[in-house]
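Next comes a concrete protein, fold included:
___
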Amino acid sequence: MKGAARLAPGRPSPAPAWETSDPYAAALRSGHGPLYLRRTDGWLLPLEVERWCARADAVDLDVLDRCEGAVLDVGCGPGRLVAELAARGRTVLGIDVSEAAVSRTVGLGGQSLRRSVFEPLPGEGRWDTVLLMDGNVGIGGDPRALLGRVAALLAPGGLLIAETAPVDVDERLHVQLVDVTDGRPASGSPFPWARIGTRALLRRAGAAGWRTAGQWGSGERRFVALRSSRRASSSAEPPNSATVISSQRPRKPSADSPVTPA
């Protein structure tokens, strides 16, 4: 998965297909697929909807055990990780451009906003951990731009945990979300995405000044932990639930607008 468009941190993602895709919303509401990312040449990548909509599994729990302080889950989907961290009493916020994803996360008891990672977010520069799970390191189709944006979201020395592709790949492409069993054409325009394996992500992160904090695998899933090299400023505030997310009560969004703080 990889898009050719380059994104600059602070600019909204040009990929509204995740937000408006009927197949994606339907899959999240039902809790099952099939659902695929389809490349323009017809290549299909199956998406693990059932796992995303289930409770956090043992592999997920191991990742969550590694999280530090206040956690931002980018592309939280149906909210299994946000719900688990919230149940542990952790400060956590999920963001997703899909109304269905936000609604499901809130229904599980988690905090969630309908927002792109490239839009303004609460707690910028004060998050202790950012999660890019389930292939979300491909958001926007430009891993370098996404790494730069995440660095701006994290507190100095903050932790990024990213789930990488299980194969050695580094590619950009344009994709659509499809349910190939219904016989209908894909909804929405192709949008940029990326697929990146551990080796390529470590190479890109190192070039951008990130420090490797760890890498591991479980079954077919692979993970990388990166430490931000951004230095503290004298005006920086520590993250806490009051300043970060206490007022983030999702309203019912319109079809084309993000959830905004109440």
Q: What stands out?
A: The first strand starts at residue 36 and ends at 39.
